[in-house]
Each structure stands twice: as C-alpha cells, then as structure tokens.
Write a structure and sequence with these properties.
47% of the residues lie in helices and 16% in strands. It is globular, with a radius of gyration of 12 Å.
C-alpha cells in the first residue's frame, strides 16, 4: 500500500496474512478495539503497518498469546 500522510497503512487482508487470521477477524478485532485503525474518506479501515508488524513479531516471539487477541469481551 502506498504512503498516506507519511505513514504506511495496511488493508484488513494484509493484516490477516501477517497475523494468520481472516480479514473478517481483523475487522472484528478492530471493532472491539483490539487493533488500531483509521478510516479512509470512503469509510474503509486502514491499519498502521508499524504497529501491526510489531504485534505480529510479539505473537511470533510468544510475548503475547493468540488467545489474548481472540478472547471475547462482554
């Protein structure tokens, strides 16, 4: 994805590939406040690449459990 405001942003599908989940799961986590995002003028979500890559690295290293993201909150 190209530059937007000086920062790189990812699509939900790209985030899903990095985190090994579906784009629908990414959207759900965003709605639940588990992933940061911004909205485009067209209303689509874009996710900050640096933050998502850091999360993916922490998941791979085991410093965050996948269950922490998948837990459902009331």
């Amino acid at each position: 994805m190209g530059e937007t405001g000086g920062s790189e942003y990812l699509l939900a599908a790209q985030v899903g590939r990095l985190l090994h989940v579906s784009p629908k799961t990414v959207s759900g986590w965003a709605t639940q406040g588990k992933l940061p995002y911004v909205r485009t003028l067209g209303g689509h979500r874009r996710f900050p690449e640096a933050t998502i890559r850091e999360l993916a690295e922490r998941l791979a290293a085991g410093s965050i459990s996948p269950e922490a993201l998948q837990a459902r909150y009331p």
